[in-house]
Amino acid sequence: MLQVDDLTKTYMLGDRSVVGGIRGVNFEVGAGELYTLLGPSGCGKTTTLRSVAGLEEPSVGRIVIDGRPVFDSVSGAFIPANQRNIGMVFQSYAVWPHMTVFENVAFPLRMSRTRRYDGREISTRVARTLEVMGLGPFSERSAAQLSGGQQQRLALARALVAEPRLLLLDEPLSNLDALLRDQMRSELRRLQKEVGVTAVYVTHDQSEALALSDRLAVMRDARIVQIGTPRQIYYAPTNEFVATFIGRSNLWRGTVMQDVAPQQRAVVEMPIGAVECHFPAGARATQPVAVLIRPEHVVLASGNPAAATALPANHFRGRVTSVVFLGETMEYLVQISDRAQIIVRRPAGDDIGADDVTVSFPVHHALGLAGTADT
After folding, report:
1. Distance between CA 43 and CA 221 in Å, rounded?
2. Are residues 210 and 230 in contact, defined by beta-carbon separation less than 8 angstroms?
3. What is the extent of the structural domain holding 33?
4. Residue 375 belongs to some domain of the structure
5. C-beta of residue 99 within 8 angstroms of C-beta of residue 143
6. Are 126 and 106 in contact (CB under 8 A)?
7. Chain CA centroid to CA 212, Å
8. pLDDT in tens, 275-310
9. What's 67-88 look like in SS3?
10. Is residue 228 located within the same domain as residue 254?
């Protein structure tokens, strides 16, 4: 449904220095997929979305929507936004408070420049869309009288009423409070699948991206650094940035002592001692590496064997220095050497009840990442 090839957009200051934008962005979105662009502020995700929408003209690259090139720097093609058959939902919703709910949704049909809709078709389309969005009973109500969640659904209804081939969403839930945002995640996911529209979603919220996406692209410094399903991104990050940006993590640095082929295990020498881990991409002997362990993969046991007692691989003595109650889970911070700590998460009702502990983690959950924090 959407193909983006080698997309570059640069912005130039008065002194002709180049800032911001995106560099060499490539991705494809399949029909019916919800695809998320995720990254910190300033990484280029909104610039990418605005380029797809036709609100920005890229410097270089190619964009194809439903088999139709809408931008091509080689041929000079640039199709205006109102001719790309897309719907957009913005962070601010941008509903018109002086109009009724019905008139808000009907507005794109009345103003369409690509085809004319008669009054009967407008009424039918609007009524059907409002029903799907659960807004049917509010059709004659002023948009200003709706709650935040209802306004979000109204903005979505207005974007979908013309049955666009592609729906673009720019942080549409960020203005909602935490509880309503969680509820609207599920609602948005359900509506997108029910309608069957292909969607590209922009957010900086990792939890939102993991909950909503079929696939996601993590962006950093104007580039995409990893693409995958939520599980692939969370459990198999390919670099330190993704490992630390997505979810809570324990990340230690050390040196691998032997050449490691992809998908093989090896021992990494670290300040806490030797750690055996799994290397998806392999590594070279004496190369600096990072080892990632998610807090939920660490096993915490009460009691601390005598110092003279040898422990198996990936088992360490430690002392609990803090415990934080997070509702569904308890988070423990365990000091395991003068220079290293480890975060452990356990179910909230499973209190360890001890200060001296042993922590351990399976080799297949210890992920070795070659390179540095910038790669």
Report:
1. 5
2. yes
3. 2-235
4. no
5. yes
6. yes
7. 8
8. 999 999 999 998 889 999 999 999 999 887 766 567
9. CEEEEECCCCEECCHHHCCEEE
10. no
